Amino acid sequence: DAGVTQSPTHLIKTRGQQVTLRCSPKSGHDTVSWYQQALGQGPQFIFQYYEEEERQRGNFPDRFSGHQFPNYSSELNVNALLLGDSALYLCASSRSPDRGPGYTFGSGTRLTVV
Amino acid sequence: GQQLNQSPQSMFIQEGEDVSMNCTSSSIFNTWLWYKQDPGEGPVLLIALYKAGELTSNGRLTAQFGITRKDSFLNISASIPSDVGIYFCAGRNAGGTSYGKLTFGQGTILTVHP
Prior knowledge:
The complex is a heterodimer.
Chain A: E1 5-7, E2 10-13, E3 19-24, E4 31-37, E5 44-50, E6 53-57, E7 64-68, E8 74-78, E9 87-94, E10 104-105, E11 109-113
Parallel strand pairs in A: 2-11
Antiparallel strand pairs in A: 1-3, 3-8, 4-5, 4-9, 5-6, 7-8, 9-10, 9-11
Chain B: E1 5-7, E2 10-14, E3 19-24, E4 31-37, E5 44-49, E6 55-58, E7 61-65, E8 71-76, E9 85-92, E10 102-104, E11 108-113
Parallel strand pairs in B: 2-11
Antiparallel strand pairs in B: 1-3, 3-8, 4-5, 4-9, 6-7, 7-8, 9-10, 9-11
């Protein structure tokens, strides 16, 4: 049974560019949340998607946007990249929005902005 | 963004020693979670706590949900080399605008010397 799959695993982008990260949730899960983890810090909540809608959002600018597809997979888009966007981006899936403790995290996408 | 206060930031111990770490918050949480993160991987859930005062064990790990619902601790008994990693606490509230969001601590880096 595949867990949460994220792609790509590593990515290098230039300031001002745009990036799209992808996530396939664990089988049977329908909710996807995205977190940003800067080096030496704990993950910070970006937003959560359920039924193809953004249900909750953390303190991130509008440059961060997302999408959820009918098959529950999700994308995270970041526009106008800044050096400070360099981080590990984690995707977490769960069965429904009220199953938080049941989150399964992917291994993340390491984004480096130069 | 908001983070929980987790201490200590790092620990260097000998194999076989017991470990204790804790997490405090200015906010009340309905659920406390403890995760372990290995290099290049996403966080993996160790223990979930759902009730104030609850004490839960998972093998050599024991965690407690503080009575005030603003703190939690994790103990590891008889540490072994594979316990090495970063341990994170996380709080969660269901309902309202915080539905499903996890708030993480800064992490405790554990090093175990054979």
